[in-house]
Amino acid sequence: MPQQPPRLASQQLVQGHLTFGALISYWRGRSRLSGNQMTAIASWGLGERSWLDSAVISRIENGRQARGCSLKNLLAFDAANAAIHLWQTKGAQACWGRYGPHTVWGVRDEWLSEAIWLPVPDQPQHPLEFSDFAEVLVGRTELPYLGTVSLGDGDAEAMSNRLSDLLNGLLTSSGLGPREGLKALLLAYPTKDPDRQSRLMAL
Predict the structure, then answer these.
(1) Which CA distances in Å does 169 have to 56, 164, 173, 176, 182?
(2) Which superkingdom, per the lineage (predicted)?
(3) Cys-Cys with 45: which of 30, 61, 83, 100 at CB 3.0–4.6 Å?
(4) 21 near 146, Cβ under 8 Å?
(5) Other C-beta atoms lying within 10 Å of the C-beta of residue 114
(6) Do residues 79 and 45 touch, judged by C-beta distance below 8 A?
(7) C-alpha to C-alpha distances, 62 to 14, 57, 65, 153, nearest whole angstrom
(8) 119 - beta bridge partners?
(9) pLDDT at 163
(10) Which residue, 31, 49, 2, 14, is CA-closest to 117?
(11) Is the distance from CB of 93 to CB of 44 less than 8 angstroms?
(12) What is the SS3 string spanning the chain?
């Protein structure tokens, strides 16, 4: 089977910006962090006001090359990822010793406890660092936990609505009422994560 020719650098950059945008969207979505919350955590990790803001994060998530992610932004994402990782693996005292009090930057305990940090694919105990973020941005690294398609808020909402309609149809055709249907659904999709359970019940 003939080998595929290597992608041009320009093609890598285009794909890299899209992948990086999907990565940040995935990270914020799984962490349930707003742009302002992510910015506050990055500022705490940097020890100075971050170059991020909600508008910059939105442009990055949309995969825009023009006015997209800069080296300063990579430093900010690296700082946020490192801070969340240290909080969850070493605890608050270790974070205070390295970064100082997080409350000065408006960061709350629950943001750090409930967020996820992004791991290095072949070293899952280590967080992505500046060089890793840069490799993703220029299209030289693919992350196994990240899909190739980036969904916008509208796409995610439409998929959620379709899933809700599908589940309602299945339960109705089974002749189950709302309560019985919900119990059957939870049994079919067992999870001990209370947050996932509450989201499933809401759906």
Answers:
(1) 41, 9, 6, 10, 13
(2) Bacteria
(3) 83
(4) no
(5) 15
(6) yes
(7) 12, 9, 9, 11
(8) 127
(9) 74
(10) 31
(11) no
(12) CCCCCCCCHHHHHHHHHHHHHHHHHHHHHHHCCCHHHHHHHHHHHHCCCCCCCHHHHHHHHCCCCCCCCCHHHHHHHHHHHHHHHHHHHHCHHHHHHHHCCHHHHCCCHHHHHHCCCCEECCEEEEECCHHHHHHHHCCCCCCCCCCCCCCCHHHHHHHHHHHHHHHHHHHHHCCCCHHHHHHHHHHHCCCCCHHHHHHHHHC
Q: Name the token pair of 91.
A: 């605890």
pTM of the model: 0.71
CA distances, 123 to each of 4, 28, 74, 152 (Å) = 28, 21, 20, 29
Q: What's the whole-number mean pLDDT along residues 56-60?
A: 90
CB contact at 8 A, 84 and 117: yes
Give the tens place of pLDDT for each residue, 59-117: 898 877 656 788 999 999 999 999 999 999 999 999 999 999 999 999 999 999 999 99
Which of these, 200, 192, 51, 38, lies nearest to 115 by C-alpha position? 38
Amino acid at 93: Q
Read off the amino acid at residue 196: R
Q: Distance between CA atoms of 190 and 196, rounded to whole angstroms?
A: 10
> What is the amino acid identity at position 68?
G
